[in-house]
Amino acid sequence: MEKRVMTDSKRRRGLIAASAVLGGVLVMSACSGDGDKGGAEGSKKSQAQVDEAAAKDASKARIAISPKNGATNASINNDAKVTVSDGTLTQVTMTTAAGETVKGTLAADGKSWKPDGQLERSTTYKISASAKDSKGLEAHENSSFTTVSPANSFIGNFTPDEGSTVGVGMPVSISFNKAITDKKAVQAGITVTSSSGQEVVGHWFNGQRLDFRPDQYWQEGSTVTLKLNLDGVEGADGVFGVQQKTVTFKIGRNQVSTVDAATKMMTITQDGKTIKTIPISAGSSENPTYNGQMVISEKFKETRMNGATVGFTDDDGKGEYDIKNVPHAMRLSTSGTFIHGNYWGADSIFGSANTSHGCVGLNDAEGAGDPNQPAAWLYDNSIVGDVVIVKNSKDRTIQPDNGLNGWNLSWAEWKAGAEA
């Protein structure tokens, strides 16, 4: 009897324990089932609320920075700019990689910003911009770009200079620092106009030189305007222009000096009227002066002339002449033709004998200090761009690209060298 009671007691304890285990399983199942489901739904609901709140707090201002982030070969003139829509810019900072600040101007309406001047080539710039929308909510953008390198860009060195007054024969001459293969694209980015209304046409002498002139000499008193819009123009494969510039210059009185190598006299006219006649000594029969229309490109009150620099050497390789103080010298060709003063020759040679190595000589005094000498008068009354014509010499006509001497091409020949 006692044994039976104990057995029943054990059975009851076993049932209770089993119930507890099963109950625990049921509780655990409830936590990992319905509890997880409810937790996930709660989490999703919470994220949606966060996103909605964030959207309400986001600024409507949209900032755009150019060039795009990471850009290379960017223009140094026009590419850098910051704009905003649905808001106004509050601050724009542009710096170099070295931390130097680039000055810029924010538009009065707060919608745009750009640098004040031209950027440097081969330079990395960083732009940081902030803006606010109508509710005062802020937006921010950052960008970095690198400008075109010298290796991937070209420039054109031009003459005459801005604001200068030149003679009627002065062409606009542009020398590029790299060979141009797409001449049409480059020429399309350059315009030359005259207030006189004369037609002006460009002529390529080679891949690196482009000159502009009208059919006849420039009209005296007119204004000529050169516009270079070469920024971003691809002149050769992977090589871009960087210039954006406007240059104006004036045309002075119409002065032309005509040298007759046969009579050894020079006649100077202004506006077609003779104002002076000067005896000269041109190139000897062994070294005659070029014929043709030449343009004064440089003036030197005194300069050194060494024959070795232009191929006139003796048996020892030294220059046949070396004059360190040639007075009143004006260049007519790249190869070394000048019209200049001569103090070492006898007075009797001027007007009677051609004795030079190809230059045109006028009587002068050593030191260039006597204003009464013929060479001094011509120097004082000549400007860069004046025309000097040589005729009746025994030499050939000068090549049109030897100096600023494109006038030796006919108008048809000139226009044939254009890339329209």
CATH class of the largest domain: Mainly Beta
Our count of helices gives 5
The count of DSSP E runs of length 2 or more, i.e. the number of strands, is 27
Helix content range? 10-25%
Q: What value does the average pLDDT take?
A: 88
Strand order of the largest sheet: 21-20-19-27-22
SSE-based structural type: alpha+beta
Our Rg estimate from Cα atoms comes to 41 Å
Q: Low-confidence parts, pLDDT < 50 over ≥5 residues?
A: 1-40
Tally the structural domains: 3
CATH superfamily of the largest domain: L,D-transpeptidase catalytic domain-like
User: What is the level-2 CATH architecture name of the largest domain?
Assistant: Beta Barrel
Q: First CA to last CA: what distance?
A: 128 Å
* CATH topology title of the largest domain: L,D-transpeptidase catalytic domain-like
Largest sheet: 5 strands, mixed
> Can you tell me the overall shape?
elongated
Fraction of residues in β-strands: 35-45%
What can you see in these coordinates?
The protein has 420 residues and is of the alpha+beta class. It has three domains: 62-148, Immunoglobulin-like (Sandwich), CATH 2.60.40.3780; 152-252, Sandwich (Immunoglobulin-like), CATH 2.60.40.3710; 255-405, Beta Barrel (L,D-transpeptidase catalytic domain-like), CATH 2.40.440.10. It has five helices and 27 strands. The protein has a five-stranded mixed sheet, with no helix packed on it. The model is unreliable at 1-40 (pLDDT under 50).
